[in-house]
Design a protein that fits this description.
single chain; alpha+beta; 8-stranded antiparallel sheet; about 35% helix; binds adenosine-5'-diphosphate; binds magnesium ion
């Protein structure tokens, strides 16, 4: 069994992994940049090591991280999500140095990290895939030719893309001509690869993804689906498990397809198969070969600790559950509380948290690395807290979400919390009728004013004064 784990990440996911270590008697080792000197993961880990002045370079340097793992006596490394979590080189360097990588093999990461290769393997495995190009398009004239063949609207996508970046909707030839150089330049900058391909644009789709777990003995199971249709700019905002808008028959079918997909590539550890669903047809979109941001809602409905399973699988243990033993109960929603101003085009709003109260009570969970007095550095993701609720029925889960958002106080920065209250009050959302265009199709939900309770204004003013006075 793993004894000492280097966590090559920061923020809430680093804290979450540290918590799993504490429960499993594993020594946790954090790493931090200068900007993260006062971060919670540094305080909570058993040991913590400085990895450089630059906010990003250390977190993105596989050799440095593996060397640090060796020097600090670690036998394993968890990449979290983002950063190097889908970097095949890191997995490879770990293996070469006898450090157990908590994730799939480097070959599988490489295969599924390349969206065109992934599409090809899924087509070969008989999984329904979004219609599109067979391989990457090499120039604009090929792109235009393929666009005509596939039929507009189409999606132009970066082959190594992720995090909602490097994707552009093109409604016609002219738009493709305009988008082509832009996506290439965005992809080169963000992912270090200029490769792009085309997909048919699925109209009004629901984003439905399936959590899988696979051990080294060939056991592969799914933990049901998540509905991540509530997105802005192709990035998820609210995630739900199970989906309130699919039938039990579809649930069984999509779970089965996900297991087949994972088995087809010899997948090991935790992963997610993402599908789009439209008119009762599902289409494979991509696989994320890591733990995702929204795995929490699956933990809530199944009771399975996914980080624990990841660490067990990496240690060479068999899955602790069989497919027929996995059940789900109730509904769970996760609200990504981002340091952003939804009313100002989701502009990032970094700064000092003058006051933070965690919401509590039954069925409420917060995964975060913020605390009162913490200053959110501007160099990293704007997601600063995951508020997760669970309840037996959909209606109760909605009420609980609203109540928990109301309970919570994150002051000093602007967040997405109040916007989520508007979504929770919307009848389409409540009736389980939403697709990936929900945010764009409900612009009025962004016209809200922040109502303060009596006495809160005084507290807010005191908070601002305290922030400026420097306490
Ligand atoms: P999830 O699929 O878990 O919802 P997101 O798409 O929200 O994950 O991404 C989680 C984090 O990982 C974000 O910070 C995102 O920018 C980053 N990320 C995801 N994929 C990539 C990638 N291919 N390259 C760089 N960063 C990525
Ligand atoms: P990333 O790697 O950034 O997560 P994905 O390929 O998973 O990129 O797509 C992110 C989101 O973009 C999807 O959840 C969906 O909302 C939208 N999207 C992607 N491809 C298509 C498509 N072919 N048709 C319609 N929407 C799409
Ligand atoms: Mg995706």
């Amino acid at each position: 069994m793993i004894k000492k784990l280097l966590i090559a990440n920061r923020g809430e996911i680093a804290v979450r992994i540290i918590r799993a270590c504490a429960e499993m008697n594993i020594c946790s080792v954090a790493v931090y940049s200068e900007a993260d000197r006062h971060a919670l993961h540094v305080k909570r880990a058993d040991e913590a090591y400085f990895i450089g002045d630059d906010p990003l370079a250390g977190y993105l340097n596989p050799i440095k991280l593996v060397n640090l793992a060796i020097e600090s006596g670690c036998d394993s490394l968890h990449p979290g999500y983002g950063f190097l979590s889908e970097n095949a080189n890191l997995a490879e360097i770990c293996v070469e140095n006898d450090i157990c990588f908590v994730g799939p093999s480097s070959n599988v990461i490489r295969l599924m990290g390349d969206k065109t290769e992934a599409r090809r393997s899924m087509i070969n495995a008989g999984i329904p895939v979004i219609p599109g190009t067979e391989s990457n398009v090499v120039n604009l004239s090929e792109a235009l030719r393929e666009g005509d063949r596939i039929g507009y609207p189409i999606m132009l996508k970066a082959t190594s893309g992720g995090g909602g970046r490097g994707i552009r909707l093109c409604n016609c030839r002219e738009e493709l001509e305009e988008a082509y150089p832009r996506v290439i330049s965005e992809a080169t900058k963000a992912f270090g690869s200029s490769e792009v391909f085309l997909e048919k644009c699925i109209i009004n789709p629901k984003h439905i993804e399936v959590q899988v777990l696979a051990d080294s003995f060939g056991n592969t199971v799914h933990l049901f689906e998540r509905d991540c249709s509530i997105q802005r700019r192709n990035q998820k905002l609210i995630e739900i498990a199970p989906s309130p808008q699919i039938s039990p028959k579809m649930r069984a079918y999509i779970g089965d397809q996900a297991v087949r997909a994972a088995k087809a590539v010899g997948y090991q550890n935790a992963g997610t198969i993402e599908f789009l669903l439209a008119d009762d047809e599902i289409y494979f979109m991509e696989m994320n070969t890591r733990v995702q941001v929204e795995y929490t809602v699956t933990e809530e409905i199944t009771g399975i600790d996914i980080i624990r399973e990841q660490l067990r699988i990496a240690s060479g243990l068999a899955l602790s559950i069989k497919q027929e033993e996995i059940q789900y109960r109730g509904y769970s929603l996760q609200f990504r509380i981002n340091a952003e101003d939804p009313r100002n085009n989701f502009l990032p709003s970094f700064g000092k948290i003058t006051r933070y109260y965690a919401p509590g009570g039954p069925g409420v969970r917060t995964d975060t690395a913020i605390y009162t007095g913490y200053t959110i550095p501007p160099y990293y993701d704007s997601m600063c807290l995951k508020l997760v609720v669970w309840a037996l029925s959909w209606e109760e889960a909605l009420a609980r979400g609203s109540r928990a958002l109301d309970d919570m106080r994150v002051q000093g920065i602007k967040t997405t919390a109040t916007y989520y209250q508007q979504i929770l009050a919307d009848s389409d959302f409540r009736n389980g009728r939403f697709n990936t265009n929900f945010v764009d199709e409900h612009p009025h939900l962004l016209n809200y004013s922040i109502k303060r309770k009596p006495g809160e204004l005084a507290l807010a003013i005191a908070g601002v004064i305290a922030a400026y006075a420097g306490f």
